[in-house]
Amino acid sequence: MHSTDNRYEFFSLEIITDPRDAEQAEPLRKDLVMTSVDDRLRATPSPAAVHPAERRRHRHHSFGFWAATIAFLVNMGFSAVPTPLYVLYQHRDHFSTIMLTVVYAVYAVGVILSLFLAGHLSDWIGRKRVFVPALLINVVSAVIFLAAPSLPGLLVARVVSGVSVGLTTATATAYLAELHAGRPAGQTAPRRAQTVATAANLGGIGVGPLVSGLLATFAPQPLRLPYVVFLVALVVLAVLVALSPETATAPDPRPRYRPQRIAVPRRARRDFYAATATGLAAFAVYGIFNSLAPSFLAVTLHQTSHAVAGAVAFAAFAAGAGIQIVLSRLGLRATLRLAPWVLIPGLALLAAGMWAPSLALFVIGGIVVGAGAALAFRGGLTTAAASAPPEARAEVLAAFFLGAYIGLSVPVVALGIATQYVSARSAMLVFSILVAAAILAGTRMLRHSK
């Protein structure tokens, strides 16, 4: 979120918050419409006509765009590196499933703290001055994983990683859009930055467990090597981002520091509560794949391969990224209508895969539910942003993300507690029913409010 910007972007969402922006953009759009192919060709400067200094600037922005993209993907990927390794930690240190979910869930604490204390600072001090430290904070997290692999060290490392991700998401998304704007217009499609940011965000969370699962299966030292690989990559990428151009101009005078406010105007509360319930339920689904899914695979489906555990998580997040890219132009009402029809069958397949038991059903269910959760989250976020007046939108979105990250952690801990009293497949069945009910109720309320 950017409290001083007129645009909020997350996954594949872009909202113009001031209607005057659209009014001012319309005559400009009309003026820029070419009447023939010849006009367009004449309007495009030839490479020889571009000044050398301008070409160097374009190359610098192109370099920065791809450096920032890979850094965004790797940083989000690092946050999910422990996913297929939790079973190894659990067996080595003999802690319960409840504690496993707590180790996972404390990550959300770091995300929420950094999101609301510093997530908006890149508007004031520059993108690189936030993004580079965010990458280095995850380097610190990797060092803690390596140096203190006991339970207290795991908890601290996960919180530190959450701080990094909270700083990264909004900053990197804005940075990519601004770097893209500095490249030659003829080289890229207008939505490319948005599409790339979507793929880096969700796709990165899937790539992390895939890489660590493969390393844990086919390489030595499974509890060390994945962190070393990502540590080296993050250091290199931090240097590359530091060499990239800065795109944000610091306001003069610089605003006095304040945390991001959290508030919901009275008239926006009905839509906000429905949107937040939808976002919470969607994030709860993703929380399963980053925490308990490897345990379910090992205990219920008898699939102990760490590579398989990482691949299942990758499939769910890749499906979420893919459907948002493919359906990026789908309207809000259609998104809200489609989300339950994708997510609920996915939940049914996921639960059926555990009851059968069938790895194929579980994997297919993960892919379908990952796509449905992405649609549900986008619908909830779009509604939350649109439900409040422009002057209160930052506060409303802050509250929405608070609810979403609660969904990423609390339901997973509750599911972990439930598995201590009932079988994992019974707990998953109840979880699926509750999530399906929340998605149905939330999307129905949102559709009827439009």
Describe the protein's architecture and organization.
With 450 residues, this protein is mostly helical. It has a single domain, classed as Growth Hormone, Chain: A, CATH 1.20.1250. The protein is built from 17 helices and two strands. It has a two-stranded antiparallel ribbon. The N terminus is likely disordered.
List strands and helices in order, with pairings:
Layout: E1 7-10, E2 13-16, H1 19-32, H2 37-43, H3 52-79, H4 86-93, H5 97-117, H6 122-125, H7 128-147, H8 151-181, H9 192-218, H10 225-242, H11 269-289, H12 293-299, H13 306-326, H14 332-355, H15 359-387, H16 393-418, H17 424-449
Antiparallel strand pairs: 1-2
Low-confidence regions: 1-44, 184-190
Q: Report on the biggest sheet.
A: 2 strands, antiparallel
User: Class by helix and strand content?
Assistant: mainly alpha
CATH class: Mainly Alpha
Number of helices: 17
Helix content bin = over 70%
Shape descriptor: globular
Estimate what percentage of residues fall within beta strands.
Answer: under 5%
What separation lies between the terminal Cα atoms? 24 Å
Domain tally: 1
- Classified in CATH, the superfamily is MFS general substrate transporter like domains
CATH-defined topology: Growth Hormone, Chain: A
CATH architecture assignment name: Up-down Bundle
Biggest sheet, strands in spatial order? 1-2
Q: Return Rg in Å.
A: 22 Å
On the 0 to 100 scale, the average pLDDT is: 84
